[in-house]
Write a structure and sequence with these properties.
single chain; 205 residues; mainly alpha; 2 strands; 70% helix; disordered N terminus
């Protein structure tokens, strides 16, 4: 059985999934270690405390992290939707439609930088785990600079061409004129939101 192979083991207790690894790679294991060693006497992989047969046991070691991520997701959803709730209660439907259009355009900097932040997260996690502070600092610096460049450039383009973009989208000059100042303000906020992606990813790592 190779280092990155796996084997299903049938025991009298439950069906479990065994992973073999070395060098610190994470893997689930069957709690019946003696049963595994009987069937695989040459098995030299390390065992970790997760059993595939029970979801509760699988979450036992990460429930604090999972709960924290759950709360972050709730707060993020509230922060991104609270403004729409307030605007919809204060203005009529036509004005709310203009605001929604501007809010959608203001997401351009964040949408362009999210893939970069998502791609960097596994590397950040690996460097934090191995305590390579110099490599972590360099990766963070380069990734943050790339995200700042993309967010600033795209945000500046949307702000500079707000009227033209809305006019191209809606074919309505009055809507473009109403949406232009809203696009300016919300896009500036979108750029700031994109700039905090790397600190957020680093905190997750």
């Amino acid at each position: 059985m190779g280092n990155d192979s796996f084997q299903l083991v049938n025991s009298p207790y439950r069906r479990s999934l065994i992973f073999r690894y070395d060098g610190g790679r994470f893997a689930p294991h069957a709690l019946r270690k003696s049963r595994v060693r009987q069937q695989f006497p040459d098995f030299r992989g390390q065992f970790c405390g997760v059993e595939c047969g029970g979801a509760g046991a699988s979450l036992a070691g990460v429930y604090k992290f999972a709960a924290g991520m759950f709360m972050i997701a709730i707060i993020a959803a509230m922060n991104t939707q609270m403004d729409k709730l307030v605007v919809s209660s204060m203005f009529a439907l036509p004005q709310y439609a203009v605001y929604s259009l501007a809010a959608l355009m203001a997401q351009v900097p964040t949408l362009l930088t999210l893939p970069v932040a998502a791609a960097v997260l596994p590397q950040l996690t690996a460097l934090v785990e191995t305590q390579q502070s110099d490599a972590l600092r360099e990766l963070y610096r380069r990734s943050a600079l790339l995200i700042a460049t993309i967010a600033s450039a795209s945000g500046a383009l949307v702000i500079a061409c707000a009227y033209e973009l809305v006019l191209l989208w809606t074919r309505d000059a009055s809507i473009a004129a109403q949406a232009q100042p809203v696009v300016w303000v919300l896009t500036a906020g979108g750029v700031c939101l994109a700039l905090q992606l790397m600190p957020y990813q680093l905190s997750l790592a």
